[in-house]
Specification:
The protein is of the alpha/beta class and 221 residues long. The protein has 8 helices and 13 strands. The strands form 4 sheets. A 5-stranded parallel sheet has the order 2-1-3-6-7, sandwiched between helices. Strands 8-9-10-11 form a 4-stranded antiparallel sheet, covered by helices on one side. Strands 4-5 form a two-stranded antiparallel ribbon. Strand 9 and strand 10 form a beta hairpin. It is elongated, with a radius of gyration of 18 Å. The protein starts with a strand and ends with a strand.
């Protein structure tokens, strides 16, 4: 899951990047309002964590600009402002949730997963497609034979991307965008290698290859 973290406190940002990466997110970080708007408008983020007090602008203005462009990814506001009016202003600007500093990282992660589930029309933490179940909390997949398989971080992110939109065709470039942040430079061959590894766990027919186009998860055994 691709996530944009907009936070100007470098110590907090570093801590959150590490924690969110362990939780299966692919994190791009910026302390700048201008860069946040540019990235939010051009990259395919599944969710944004947005601080309000930024050195070059107000996070609410960034949020309003993104919503004006009809970008509907969930946005969680993260701020030191705890007054009820600030919360109301954030929600009116288009935020989906609000978390005041200081906070526990566990609560932030739980809220992010809840927002993503809601955006995908789900209520449970497991992604279920056919007889396959992906446990987002433990980063494990259950196959139709009832066995649980532990996934590496990249395997989990790739499988989650495919299973979150079953039947949808993802090109290699689209998968790279969801699996890696802006500092990485993987090739299409990397995606092919991970698809082969996942097929060894799920079976050869769970992921369909669309020659010259990409992959889709169809859940066939």
């Amino acid at each position: 899951m691709r996530l944009l973290l907009v936070e100007d406190d470098s110590l907090l940002a570093d801590s959150l990047v590490n924690r969110l990466t362990r939780e299966g997110f692919v994190v791009d970080h910026t302390p700048s309002a201008a860069t946040a708007f540019a990235l939010g408008a051009q990259e395919d983020y599944r969710i944004i964590v947005l601080d309000l007090g930024l050195p070059d602008g107000n996070g609410l203005d960034v949020l309003a600009q993104l919503r004006e462009k009809r970008l509907n990814m969930p946005v969680l506001i993260l701020t030191a402002r705890g007054g009820w009016q600030d919360k109301v202003n954030g929600l009116k600007a288009g935020a989906d949730d609000y978390l005041a500093k200081p906070f526990q990282a566990e609560e932030l992660v739980a809220r992010l997963h809840a927002l993503i589930r809601r955006s995908e029309g789900r209520v449970r933490s497991n992604l279920i497609v056919g007889d396959y179940q992906l446990d987002e909390t433990r980063q494990r997949v259950k196959t139709p034979d009832g066995k649980d398989h532990t996934l590496t971080g990249t395997e989990f992110r790739l499988l989650r991307c495919l299973m979150s939109r079953p039947g949808q065709l993802f090109s290699k470039d689209e998968l790279i965008e969801q699996l890696y942040n802006l500092d990485d430079s993987p090739s299409g061959n990397t995606i092919e290698a991970y698809v082969r590894r996942i097929r060894k766990i799920l079976g050869q027919h769970a992921i369909t290859t669309h020659r010259g186009q990409g992959y889709s998860f169809d859940g066939a055994q």
